[in-house]
Amino acid sequence: MSVEVIKTISPNTNEVVITRNGASAADLELLPKVATEAFLEFRKTTLKDRQDIVRKFLDALDKHKDDLALELTTQMGRPIAYTAKEVTTAIKRAEYLLKLSNEVLQDVEGEPEKGFKRFIRRAPVGPVLIIFAWNYPYLILVNALIPAILAGNSVILKPSPQTPTVVEQVAKLFSEAGLPNGVLQYFHCGSPSLMETIVRDPRISLICFTGSVAGGLAVQQAAADRIVSVTLELGGKDPAYIRDDVDIDWAAEEIVDGAIFNSGQSCCSIERVYVHEKVHDDFVAAVQKVLKGYKLGDPFDKSTHIGPVVSKRSKETIESHIQDALKKGAKDVTPENESFQNPPPKGNFVKPTLLTGVDHTMTVMTEETFGPVIPVMKVKGDDEAVKLMNDSEFGLTASIWTKDVDRGYELCEQVDAGTVFVNRCDYPSPDLAWTGWKNSGRGQTLGRFGFDAFVKSKSFHIKDYPK
User: Fold this and answer.
1) Residue from 233, 254, 271, 368 carrying the catalytic annotation
2) Which tens digits make up the pLDDT trace of 243-294?
3) Is 398 helix (H, G, I), strand (E, B) or coil?
4) How many CA atoms lie within 13 A of 74 on its CB side?
5) CATH class held by domain 238-422
6) Contact between 335 and 291 (Cβ < 8 Å)
7) Catalytic residue list contains 233
8) DSSP type of residue 396
9) Which end of the chain is flanked by fewer CB atoms within 10 Å, N or C?
10) Which residue intervals make up region (Disordered) (predicted)?
């Protein structure tokens, strides 16, 4: 049988930059076997032992962050000015989870009772399969990997073909930090049928998936014939509402950054902007002014703000959303910007695009665009804004922009999303739960609840021997 060759194509040049051999059926039979054997030993280690390993890993990750940043820019196209920050942010996030583990992984004492010792142990679940996306691979990975290791589980990683070296680097650095053999494994795969095989494997105790809704549904369906936990972090169509009392220039800067950073390729990017009719025109003018200061171009140029999108297919999807909106009456009011008009010739470059006159008949307001597009819709007030914000199959994040913070809080209470912001956006906080509502996912990472998927409760009733 021929070996599957997985190719990583540069978003910047559309040339192949990395090839990897895909896993075989025999490989996928062996991985859970090794993971199970390793788990039986690793679960006997102390929390302190595991914490020490994680600390050494994070120290090594920090020392290599510049090399890792270069790999990210090469593979997924984010400008080099920003890729190292992903690694440092991932380290800070992991350090918080490390600190939190002292509390959340301890035994929970039962009510005092004479002659009894009773408590709940937070036991590891077993081998964990983590399937994760390319757009923020280190940040996404630490959300699941660090709690999994700290809880005493073994882990199998499956990366996106777009960023294959992430798992290789992580596995190498964890091994050097002292993680026992077999506790952390990885494989590359582009075959849906082989992926279905490992998802169905009864030796896998937990599946954590980050990616598209379609991918999440496929994983859920493949796992449906047995009792296994599946956590899903999927897409978003995140709304922002600009009230009429806000500082327009400040809000415009924040919204542009929240919408087009990483070329808009984030599940929590702002993809819908609702603006009070009293300030609509001023807000659009302010956004135009901000966009004039952005540079679209070569991601290896440190002055570049916006690089290419990940693939030709992604570029086509984004452009189809824009064209659908224009055909239905929207207007492209993107300002003149030389870099927007003259991007590098080979890559998948999409100019940041500002649209007005949009509505919910347009795909740009209903389907995940995952690109540098800012669609702005005029609203009459709070009630209409909230109704439109909730008119979506997604519910990851939402933001309210206002001087009246108390009113912003009241509106957040009415919005259907796992994370709601007032005067902020696009920021998963490590001390709060990161969770999607509706088709944005199931389960949660980060914060004290971010450990829950990786442990199972085991109740102990210890009675004194009768004398």
Assistant:
1) 233
2) 999 999 999 999 999 999 999 999 999 999 999 999 999 999 999 999 999 9
3) strand
4) 13
5) alpha beta
6) yes
7) yes
8) S
9) C
10) 327-346
